[in-house]
Specification:
Layout lengths: L1 E5 L5 E6 L2 H4 L5 H15 L58 H17 L3 E4 L9 H10 L6 E5 L4 H7 L5 E5 L5 H6 L2 E5 L3 H8 L10 H11 L1
Parallel strand pairs: 1-3, 3-6, 4-5, 4-6
Antiparallel strand pairs: 1-2
Helix pairs in contact: 2-3, 4-5
Length: 227
């Protein structure tokens, strides 16, 4: 598969041949949705918390005797029906995390990258890293590329100037190739790659890094190939 390489003005310079295993797979919408939901669930924090009648402060003594007053029966001051008492069936913190297999997550990332490549919303930008961390430079580049909303820039982890230049631009996120994730890729309308990060993405998310099969037939086949 080939992806366009553009300069900072938006002019197409050449087409770069990329790995079909990363940018040219058929997007698996089902796995992509499961990975997106799992990632958002793992980000979720349970902050709502209430105290039951056994957790609030107060005496457990019965406030008055059962009969003889002509009014309703009453227990301790911790009862949920009294002011300052506990909450009946209230929310408590819980874990919303979902387990998601690594291989499915890898497939989801490749599906998201391939979807952007098919939709021509993924571009490789040459000389995107500025010499000085100037926000104006990144803003002008995005204007030239007509990328005005939901932009995800994927660069090298050591590209400090680009990170500093882009952090004050609205609706722009900067990630390293190691931190690519499904949620940011799905939410992005445009994905911009620096030219030197393409090979790193292929090395990280290509099929060579897939877990080898543990079946007996695969083990026998690999032994025969080694001989």
């Amino acid at each position: 598969m080939k992806l366009p390489v553009v300069d900072t003005t938006g002019s197409v310079l050449e087409e770069l041949t990329v790995s079909d295993d990363v940018f040219g797979v058929e997007p698996n919408r089902s796995v992509l949705h499961q990975a997106y939901v799992a990632q958002l669930a793992n980000r979720r924090a349970s902050s709502a918390s209430t105290k039951s009648r056994g957790q609030v402060r107060g005496s457990t003594r019965k406030l008055r005797r059962q009969k003889g007053f002509g009014s309703a029966r009453v227990g301790s001051s911790r009862s949920p029906v009294r002011v300052g008492g506990g909450v009946a069936h209230g929310p408590t913190p819980r874990d919303h995390a979902k387990r998601f297999p690594i291989q499915m997550r890898r497939l989801a990332i490749r599906s998201a990258l391939s979807s952007h490549a098919i939709g021509k919303s993924l571009r490789i930008v040459r000389d995107l890293s500025p010499e000085d961390p100037k926000t104006r430079f990144v803003a002008e580049v995005l204007k030239n590329l007509q990328a005005d909303r939901g932009v995800l820039i994927v660069c090298d982890a050591s590209d400090v100037h680009l990170r500093r230049a882009a952090r004050n631009v609205a609706a722009v996120s900067v990630l390293s190739s190691e931190n690519l994730n499904v949620a940011d890729l799905v939410d992005a309308h445009d994905v911009l790659f620096t030219e030197d990060v393409v090979s790193k993405v292929e090395d990280l998310w290509g099929t060579e890094n897939l877990k080898p099969s543990r079946t007996r037939a695969a083990a026998i086949a690999s032994t025969k190939d080694a001989k």
